[in-house]
Design goal:
eight-stranded antiparallel sheet, Jelly Rolls, Immunoglobulin-like, nine-stranded antiparallel sheet, 36 strands, mainly beta
Length: about 450
């Protein structure tokens, strides 16, 4: 197996040990296992200075050449584990001080002395080296790490889980640690691999073996703000001021379609909404009070069971407010989304086929993302807290494909106009799948800070 040396460090690394005569006080040295593996055996030996190469010593060249060093009798050098232990001569590889095992992160101290015989009259300096040897625990080895996915494209605030495969010998630690090169773009949980997009840009995630970080794998992460799903038949955005035509001053006469289909909305001369009166997330929204807008051409395909999906970011400030309506007339063919009293509900209705959210789910003082879709048998409304309310009914096939904002047509003289504001409207002449719905909702959520 490809074992690497243990990282054993002498904490009080002395260049020279100074002893003064017989029975001089011993010196205490401390070593630490700074490896991630256990040292199952640690030994201390002494090596004579004349058996070492000059490069192995930390003495200067002048000291080596002219220092007057004597070759010591190795038997004079002794070690012990502590003051209660016996001194052990460490003069040969077979004669050593056994410090036992040393777990990762732990340290151990031992004493060293120069036990000069009483009848020795030599004087001068002596050169020797203390050698510490260790043996790592035997463990199965890591052979490779590969991130399973080829890369990641994640929308802001969304998450995705990265996984990695580890090739290893039986019994090895196959866990990995995850890191990211750019936390301003993406963060990653160190153990689970869950990536969270926090800013637009690119980053690199890394999965490294928990047991041996020499083995790792990397992948790119691209984080971006989502765009609208392709194929919209109408896009209205009140923050795009160039799409709002006013006359006079802040009164909106035309709200231009940004989808490229030219399904612009126009205000009746006496019922113009206003711009610049309210904001949402520091962006302009259009205020509706006794005002209404309608398309001149069909936004929706008409006919039996023609599907559609519509998103609106709106706020109602009063009860019985119509946010949008489509159809010839409410009493014949039409559908609407309206706020109703008295229980803070949102009504999603066809003539004779109302579906109302549970009581209290609609806070009409706040802006919400609302969705309404039609597939011939199902009706649906969704609010920003991701509570989905679904009902079924016969519905009505639209004979008029125009879209009206802020009012309902022909409701027996009742005034159900919107008192509130609208920030965005997005219409599709098809049913969006769950991922497309989530993408569009996230686009609106991020744009409007909801």
């Amino acid at each position: 197996m490809d074992e690497q040396p243990l990282n054993i460090v002498l904490l009080n690394d002395p260049q020279q040990l100074v002893f003064c005569g017989k029975d001089a006080a011993p010196i205490t040295l401390t070593i630490k296992n700074e490896d991630t593996r256990e040292a199952v055996e640690v030994r201390v030996n002494i090596v004579r200075g004349d058996l070492l190469k000059p490069a192995d010593l930390t003495l200067t060249q002048d000291e080596l050449i002219g220092g007057g060093y004597k070759v010591i009798d190795e038997g004079w050098l002794e070690c012990r584990l502590n003051s209660l232990s016996s001194w052990v001569a460490v003069d040969e590889w077979d004669n050593y001080l056994d410090l036992g095992s040393l777990p990762a992160g732990d340290s151990v101290s031992f004493d060293v002395r120069l036990n000069v015989p009483s009848n020795n009259t030599d004087n001068g300096r002596m050169c020797f080296a203390i050698m510490i040897s260790s043996k790592p625990e035997t463990q199965p080895q890591i052979r490779g790490v590969t991130i399973d996915q080829t890369g990641y494209d994640i929308y802001l605030t969304e998450t995705e889980t990265a996984t990695a495969s580890v090739v290893a010998e039986p019994g090895a630690d196959t866990a990995v640690q995850w890191t990211c090169s750019n936390p301003a773009v993406a963060t990653v949980d160190i153990s689970s691999g869950v990536i969270t997009a926090v800013g637009s840009g690119r980053a690199v995630i890394k999965a490294a073996s928990n047991q041996n970080q020499r083995f790792y794998s990397t992948r790119y992460v691209r984080c971006s703000e989502p765009d609208y799903v392709a194929g919209a038949s109408l896009i209205l955005d009140s923050s795009e001021l160039d799409s709002i035509i006013v006359s006079p001053a802040t009164y909106v006469t035309e709200w231009r379609d940004l989808s490229g289909n030219d399904n612009h909305l126009y205000a009746e001369p006496s019922y113009k909404p206003r711009t610049g009166q309210q904001t949402l997330n520091s962006k302009n929204v259009i205020s509706f009070t006794n005002s209404r807008m309608q398309t001149a051409f069909n936004v929706f395909d008409t006919g039996v069971n023609k599907p559609y999906t519509i998103f609106v970011v709106a706020k109602s400030s009063a009860v019985h407010d119509t946010i949008f309506f489509s159809g010839t007339a409410w009493a014949s063919n039409g559908c609407l989304l309206a706020f109703t009293e008295p229980d803070n509900n949102m009504s999603h209705s066809w003539w004779g086929n109302d579906f109302v959210t549970p009581n209290g789910t609609w806070n009409y003082t706040d802006h919400h993302i609302l969705m309404m879709s039609w597939d011939g048998s199902n009706e649906r409304i969704t609010v920003i807290d991701d509570n989905d309310f679904t009902g079924t009914g016969s519905g009505k096939d639209l004979t008029d494909g125009k879209l009206s904002l802020g009012f309902i047509k022909d409701f027996y003289g009742f005034d159900y106009e919107l008192t509130g504001s609208i920030a965005s409207v997005v219409v599709y002449n098809r049913l969006l799948n769950s991922s497309e719905i989530a993408q569009t909702k996230l686009k609106l959520k991020l744009k409007w800070g909801l």
